[in-house]
Design a protein that fits this description.
Layout lengths: L46 H13 L1 E8 L6 H9 L12 H4 L7 E9 L2 E9 L14 H18 L15 E6 L8 H10 L5 E5 L7 H17 L14 H13 L2 E2 L6 E4 L2 E8 L2 E4 L8 H11 L1 H25 L3
Parallel strand pairs: 1-3, 1-4, 4-5, 5-6
Antiparallel strand pairs: 2-3, 7-8, 8-9
Helix pairs in contact: 8-9
Length: 336
């Protein structure tokens, strides 16, 4: 007495062309059939990835990076090397005031970089004057103020009754901190800065101008920095608390063993074995920037761009910005 006969909902494969009853093929997504009849086969769910890719390529995306360190550590050169373009500019003839800034003055430069049809709005924020003075007390205050101002700007746009479909994102997604290649321990200034900034932004420490150290000195200096970070409970990126699954933890553990990256920056090409490579020319040879046996710049580039760029943005939005948003809304809701 069932209204649905078994043969009407048969799951047998369709007839092979050439047999007696050859039927026209009908896509499974639009194949007619009684309610409750399950169909197994290709649906096309993975096309969602293509839709997301096409939409992202049309709209593009934003990435904001900050570089912090003393003058002369190669911050501008490193950013140019990172994106293989002149995204960080230096004045050709700096005046005396520009050479020795009295305070930390933040300078932001925005470029639109396009590669294989993908557009990225890149904002590089430089911090000239950081750590250059004899008395560097509270020299991190302008940097903290700038980062919080970007959170505040995003928050004000977000709480509007009529919001923009796409809120401009000027929040700092990553801060690359350049440690001077002293070969000793971290300075109190380095520890204080990373301790304060790691709570509000993703901090990635690097050893600047690593070609001034021997391989033994580099390994010993890196180990001392890791001990300093562990002793002072400074959580640099990638943070252990935010690992999503065992695969992410395994990958990030390998990265954490290498931090801080010993990097060398160069924005000039040289001829090596018939190939044009980025590098620094010295009397005894050429230091190839993109050669892992010469320096760890490829590891830094992979971390910031190839493997963890979206994760940097996600942690900025879901962790650092969220904590700022909660704090600000709690302050505004307190009775007068």
């Amino acid at each position: 007495g069932s209204s649905l006969e078994p043969e009407e909902c048969s799951m047998e494969p369709p007839a092979v062309p050439g047999e007696e009853e050859e039927e026209e093929e009908v896509p499974l997504s639009v194949a007619p059939g009684p309610v409750g009849c399950q169909l197994f086969g290709y649906v096309g769910i993975e096309a969602v990835l293509d839709q997301m890719k096409i939409k992202t390529m049309k709209t593009g995306f934003e990435f904001n990076i900050m570089v912090v360190g003393q003058s002369g550590l190669g911050k501008s050169t490193m950013v140019n090397t990172l994106f293989k373009s002149k995204v960080s500019r230096k004045s050709s003839q700096p005046s005396q005031e520009e050479r020795i800034p009295k305070t930390v003055q933040l300078q932001s430069i925005t470029h639109v970089i396009e590669e294989k049809g993908v557009k990225m709005k890149l904002t590089v924020t430089d911090t000239p004057g950081f750590g250059d003075q004899i008395n560097n007390e509270n020299c991190w205050d302008p940097i903290i103020k700038y980062i919080n101002e970007q959170y505040e700007r995003y928050l004000r746009e977000e709480i509007l009754i009529t919001r923009k479909r796409k809120i401009p994102d000027t929040r700092v997604h990553g801060c690359v901190y350049f440690v001077p290649p002293t070969g000793h321990w971290l300075r109190p200034l380095d520890l204080e800065f990373m301790q304060r900034l790691s709570k509000i932004v993703n901090v990635v420490p690097v050893i600047a101008k690593a070609d001034t150290l021997t391989l033994e000195e580099r390994a010993e200096f890196k180990q001392r920095i890791q001990e300093d970070l562990k002793t002072h409970a400074i959580s640099v990126y990638p943070q252990e608390d935010f690992d999503q699954d065992p695969e992410d933890r395994a990958l990030n553990d390998r990265i954490r063993e290498k931090i801080p990256f010993a990097v060398v920056g160069a924005d000039q090409e040289h001829q090596v074995n018939g190939k044009r490579v980025l590098g620094r020319k010295t009397k005894w040879g050429i230091i190839e920037v993109e050669n892992p046996s010469h320096c760890e710049f490829p590891l830094l580039r992979d971390l910031l761009i190839r493997s963890h760029l979206q994760d940097l943005k996600d942690i900025t939005h879901n962790v650092h910005y969220e904590s700022y948003r909660v704090r600000r809304l709690n302050e505004s809701n307190r009775p007068g």
